[in-house]
Specification:
It is a single chain. This protein has 412 residues and is an alpha+beta fold. It folds into 3 domains: 121 residues, Gcn5-related N-acetyltransferase (GNAT) (Aminopeptidase), CATH 3.40.630; 156 residues, Gcn5-related N-acetyltransferase (GNAT) (Aminopeptidase, 3-Layer(aba) Sandwich), CATH 3.40.630; 98 residues, 2-Layer Sandwich (Nonspecific Lipid-transfer Protein, Chain A). 23% of the residues lie in helices and 32% in strands. The protein has 10 helices and 19 strands. The strands form 3 sheets. The protein has a 7-stranded mixed beta sheet. Strands 8-9-10-11-12-7-13 form a 7-stranded mixed beta sheet. A hairpin with a 2-residue loop joins β2 and β3. It is globular, with a radius of gyration of 23 Å. It starts with 14 loop residues before the first strand and ends in a 12-residue tail after the last helix.
């Protein structure tokens, strides 16, 4: 999660640099105060194994603001590409409104340029990060319903569920990676530390339960879930799914049937799926199901030429377009770029052409959404920042960037 909650004015006295291990406790105090102040001050032992690289805006030796950088690989239209993650952006109240978040973002984009075509984050405020060029990556649906509403799935899938513990994280990893291939922006390999500490919370007081769905002895789905009170009466509990994946629809039905079998333990179940609402067409009583569609993480192009070169295109797509891109954060993206695609191969380079003569004009956030397939060109023109010189350009962009099932479900 990234958050600061303030506007920024420039403060040239601070510099951004990597943080050494001896500043881990200081880093954590700033992050805790920003995101979980209700827990009070915490104490920390030695620095744990690093999952992210930590950076700070520093003046002299005073730490003014912090953030974390993640190194991911994610699916992009059927191929794996590097994806940078920005998280834990936090500034203590005494140092806010001094330009430190902008300095952290500028520094991050400079570091990522040339290695990561795309960057993602989970925002505390969508509008706040739109000013830095990020745009919505995907939506997701959160369902809450009595377990009986999932009884339609009982017996619809071959296989069985069995509990797993943290030592079987590789079993869950195999399902996660197989399921990731069906969506764009799904993250590839999670480390053992990520599974044990982030997903399965090994050793914590509130460790979740985990079960895998096996078909013919092979893992094809899993659930990581927890229980909480949902009322004051006996047995009024909610089962909340914290993480899940299924390699196909049949495996997903197996997991739903498993959730339905908790009807003697809980009064409701809650889980998320990508932004589709097809569960409402499957249950017996859609009015008994609460379905809330929300925006999820945000994505942005780090470097236009790198992103358009890394993006896979349909084999039958061809185009020669001049794109005028506006980017108020990364100056190297502010200009005109010629994109040539032929037989699935592409070339992209900045060109010295007037923006007024470009085939299409769009901001970097809208371009980012086209690249990942959040929406198609017609939608980008209707609700985004796309304008075209001729109607045929919309058809060309639609052929290059068809919509995708985008679902970055891993929170970081």
């Amino acid at each position: 999660m990234t958050g600061d909650g303030t506007g920024d004015t420039d403060d040239a006295s601070a510099t951004v640099r990597p943080l050494s291990a001896d500043r881990f406790a200081e880093f954590r105090r700033i992050v805790d105060y920003a995101f979980s102040p209700e827990d009070g001050p915490q104490t920390y032992d030695d620095e744990p194994e690093r999952i992210a690289d930590r950076y700070g805006a520093v003046a002299g030796d005073e730490l003014l603001a912090v953030c974390g950088h993640y190194d991911f690989r994610a699916t992009l239209r059927g191929e794996w590409v590097p994806l940078a993650g920005l998280a834990a952006v936090a500034t203590p109240p005494e140092h806010r409104r001094a330009g430190h978040v902008r300095a952290l973002v500028d520094d991050a984009l400079e570091r990522w340029r040339g290695e990561y075509p795309l960057a993602a984050l989970w925002p505390f405020s969508r509008a706040y990060y739109e000013q830095f060029g990020w745009a919505t990556a995907n939506t997701y649906s959160e369902y809450t319903c009595p377990p009986a509403q999932l009884s339609f799935a009982r017996g619809e899938a071959d296989g069985r569920a069995r509990p797993v513990d943290p030592d079987e994280w590789r079993t869950l990893q195999s399902v996660h990676e197989a399921a990731a291939e069906a969506t764009t922006l799904a993250l590839r390999r999670r480390s053992e530390t990520w599974w044990r500490e982030r997903v399965l919370a090994e050793g914590s007081d509130d460790r979740p339960w985990a079960s895998v769905w096996e078909r013919a002895g092979e893992p094809v789905g899993y659930l990581v879930y927890s229980f909480a009170d949902a009322g004051e009466g006996f047995g009024e509990r909610r089962l909340t799914v914290d993480d899940t994946a299924a390699v196909d629809h049949e495996a997903w039905l197996g997991l739903l049937g498993f959730l339905a079998d908790h009807d003697s333990q809980v009064t409701e179940v809650q889980f998320e799926r990508e932004g589709r609402t097809d569960l409402l067409d499957l249950v017996d009583d859609p009015e008994a199901v609460d379905c809330e569609v929300s925006t999820g993480p945000m994505v942005r192009v780090v470097d236009v030429t790198d992103a358009l070169a890394a993006c896979p295109y349909p084999d039958d797509a061809s185009a020669d377009l001049a794109l005028a891109v506006t980017d108020g954060t990364a100056e190297w993206n502010d200009g005109v770029f010629r994109l040539t695609v032929e037989d699935g191969s592409s070339e992209c380079a900045a060109v010295d052409e007037p923006a007024a003569e470009a085939d299409a004009t769009l901001d970097v956030g809208t371009l980012s959404q086209l690249v990942v397939g959040y929406h198609d060109a017609a939608t980008a023109r209707r609700v985004g920042g796309l304008s075209v010189a001729e109607e045929s350009v919309v058809d060309d962009l639609a052929a290059l960037f068809p919509p995708e099932r985008v679902y970055l479900r891993t929170f970081f």
